[in-house]
Amino acid sequence: MKLQLTKDKTIEIKFPSGGGAKSAGDITGIELFAPGETGCPAVRLIRKKKGWHIAATGFVKSPDGELPMRWEDTPHQPIWEMPREFTSPHAALAANSPMATFAQSTADAVVQDMMSGLPAQDIKSALSEKTSLDGKKRFGIKRDQPAAQPQKPATTPEASAHRPEFPEAGKPVSENGRRFVVRPMAEENFHLCASLPEFQTLWLSRLLPEGKRPTASSIQVSESALMASILLQPEFIAADGSALAIFARPDSTYLAGYKKGEPVLWRRCPGVGGTLAMRETVRATLGLDEELVDSVLNESLIDPRPALEPFVRPILGQLSLSLDYLAGKHGLKFDHAFLMGIGAGAAHWSAYAEESLHLKLLSPDPFEGLVVDKGVDSGNASRQLVALGAAIAGMEATT
Amino acid sequence: MKTAAFHLNLLKSNEVLSSSPVRLRVMLPVGALLACVGLLVWWGVLFTQIFLAKTQARSIKEDLATKNSAHAEAIQKRETARELKQQLEQLEFYKAGVRAIGAPLAKFAEVVPMRVQLKELSISKPRPQVLMPPGAKVPLFGPIENVETQKLVIVGLATKETPVVSLMESLESGFETLVTGEHNVNSFKQDNTEIDGKRLLSFEIEYSMPGRRFAK
Q1: Could you tell me which chain B residue has the CA closest to the CA of A13?
Q2: DSSP characters for chain B?
Q3: Can you tell me the ipTM of this complex?
Q4: Which residue, A54, A172, B157, B188, is the most exposed by fewest CB within 10 angstroms?
Q5: Shortest Cα distance, chain B CAs vs residue A195, angstroms
Q6: Bridge partner list, A32
Q7: B19 vs A212: CB contact, 8 Å cut-off?
Q8: pLDDT digit string, tens, across residues A165-213
Q9: Does B10 contact A262 at a Cβ distance shorter than 8 Å?
């Protein structure tokens, strides 16, 4: 609440929000709109005296409706309530949005990205929302200032009428109709930058209603949550937080590098799909039914390598580049790397990696290092990797 | 290592909603408002109590002023009554102390012998009374001593001693209200006055009169 005492003097009174995410001891990580999933993967993480506990896992019913892709869609604001086992005080939402961005960038690139605003096809719809630009109350939220109009990227600093300031680390800012947040990486002048359209962030922020557990204390993009998902792995901690990881998602594959517990590399493998594509390749090549793919990938009765190799090789090529980059730039040398989210077929991946890179791929249970409470289903851990990562990051804890 | 380094939270702090059914954001202003109302009520009660106390004090003051004058009047009346009572008492004393000497004096005339000529029959003045003793604010209504003594002085001429003695003997009985038995012959001597060539004797006898008692 801001009180204007005199013309020049204004004081701000901050009421406790009651839902701060700082060192939350009980949080539910939820992945929204996960590709290939009908529900939302959810993991409830509780910090107890003896360590980190997985108190509940599952797939909760998706919120009514879809993630809005335009300002016009945001009036449809569903109210989403969690099942009893996920009623922790806080929730960390990890959203899959085609309009989300997550990348490692330089400060200039981040600022340039902030200046560019929404993609061209969204500018028109954003501009048509007059009420979103005139500072009036919209959907129960009073804007502090009118939303900035999307603008074309400036080619020179002089040409830019408004050059946004580089945001403070971890503090979200709204610029050109998008919400940005950055965190510094271990390499100087490099930052991880995540962004979502402003209307999607607002829609997500009000998804879980006030006064009922849980309420959103964190909104992340799914890639960001994915990156945090291995932070509690014993192997990762034993390596003092220095590791290289492959994150296989249903629709894409990512490589992540860590140096002493800080991010040092994040890149999407170009031209490579995700686990869905891998399974489809195996299925089509070997002429299998969908139900048999897992069996083929995990057992040795049928050799899936001829079908798997064309998919894995490009990834290993990218992995090789990343290894060279981390060794040359940061002095990090690895004899193993993490392979997360693969579900089935990890042994074949590791065999390829050992053959070509002399690198062993570890594919630990995502819940390893955590105490899984009695009665909790841990059979779908690889599908709940993003939810787990969202919860781990949302805790903002020190391990 | 800190997991916060990987927490890229797009949610602004002012957008974080409370999961508590009791919303502090609402309860704080409501609590503050209730506290203000409570203070106002308390202030109102206090003000009313002060007002009532002031009214009561003013009423008591007025009552006290009325009663003071009534009290002073009562005290004055009591004083007046006391004075009047004392006056009445004193009058009673004087009434009791009245010395009725008319009848004894008439009888006295009968007992005076033929050979005695009374020249003077006087009663001494009583000793002056101090009616304003030291420290007294108002004079006393009556004498401090309640017994007043006087002398009856009989001065006369006689031809010889015998009639005088006869007179003195006559006064010994029947004249208790006039004189007591205590007497003193102040003088008894030859006078220059002659009757039939004889020189007379003059005498002066002082009798104590009975005490005049101022008492009920």
Answers
A1: B25
A2: -BGGGG----S-GGGPPP-SSS-HHHHHHHHHHHHHHHHHHHHHHHHHHHHHHHHHHHHHHHHHHHHHHHHHHHHHHHHHHHHHHHHHHHHHHHHHT----HHHHHHHHHHS-TTEEEEEEEEPPPPPP--S-TT-SS--SS-SSSEE--EEEEEEEESSHHHHHHHHHHTTSS-TTT--S-EEEEEEEEEEEEETTEEEEEEEEEEEPPPEE---
A3: 0.82
A4: B188
A5: 7
A6: A95
A7: yes
A8: 888 999 999 988 899 999 999 988 899 999 999 999 999 999 999 888 9
A9: no
Interface list for A 85-104 with B (CB within 8 A): 89-90, 102
Cα A121 to chain centroid distance, Å, stands at 24
Distance between CA atoms of residues A234 and A367, nearest Å: 10
Our CA-based measurement puts residue B66 at a distance from the nearest CA of chain A, in whole angstroms, of 57
Mutate to test the interface with B, among A178, A218, A223, A254 (most CBs of B within 10 A): A218
Residue at A73: amino acid letter: D
Enter the tokens of residue A138: 């919209």
- The CB-side HSE value for A231 (13 A sphere, CA atoms) comes to 31
Q: Which residues of A touch B10 (CB under 8 A)?
A: 172, 179-181, 194-196, 201, 219-221
Band of pLDDT at residue A131, cut at 50, 70 and 90: very low
Does residue A14 or residue A18 have the better pLDDT?
A14
Question: What pLDDT digit, counting tens, does each position of A337-349 carry?
Answer: 999 998 888 888 9
Give the best residue of A171, A180, A183, A264 to mutate against chain B (max B CB count within 10 A). Answer: A183
Contact A396 B18 (CB under 8 A): no
CB contact under 8 A, B16 and A399: no
Bridge partner residues of B208 (DSSP): B151
Q: How far is CA B44 from CA A23, A31, B49, B58, in A?
A: 47, 57, 8, 21
CA angle A251, A254, A260 (to 5 degrees): 150
Rounded distance, CA A31 to CA A247, Å?
A: 15
Within a 10 A sphere around the Cβ of B99, how many other Cβ atoms? 16
H or E element that contains A310: helix A305-330
**Is A151 a residue whose pLDDT tops 50?**
no
